[in-house]
Amino acid sequence: MTESGPSETTAPITIYWRRWCPYCQRLGVRLRLAGIPFRKVDITRDPAAAAEVRAITGGDEITPTVLVNGHQLVNPSVDEIRAALAAAPPVS
Questions:
Q1: What is the CA radius of gyration of the chain?
Q2: Angle, nearest 10°, between helix axes 22-34 and 78-86?
Q3: Mean pLDDT by 10 residues, the chain (92 residues)
Q4: CA 84/CA 86 separation, integer angstroms
Q5: Beta bridge partner(s), residue 67
Q6: Total-model pTM
Q7: Distance from C-alpha of 15 to C-alpha of 29, rounded to nearest angstrom
Q8: CA distance linking residue 35 with residue 70, whole number of Å
Q9: Which residues have CB under 8 Å from 24's CB, separation 6+?
Q10: Cα four-point dihedral sign 47, 91, 75, 79
C-alpha cells in the first residue's frame, strides 16, 4: 500500500517505512522541515515493498530504506538524501 499526500504523489524520494519505526518517523520529520517531498510505502502493509527492501538490504527488512534518483539508501541522513538528489543516477 502506497501512502502519499497531494504534494507527495510525484516526489522523487520513496521511503520504505513502518509506522512504529522511530528512525522512519525522525527521517520524515527532518525531510518535512527541510522542505523535501517524499512518498511513503509501509512495508508492513505491502508485501511486495517488503520484498523489495529485503532485496536491497541483503535479506533484512531495515527501515527506513530510501530510493532517490536511482540510489538505494539504508537508514540515511537528510544530508545523504540531498547528496543523492544532486548526484547523477548510478550507471547500471
A1: 12
A2: 60
A3: 45 92 97 96 97 96 95 96 88 68
A4: 5
A5: 14, 72
A6: 0.83
A7: 12
A8: 20
A9: 15, 17, 18, 63, 64
A10: negative
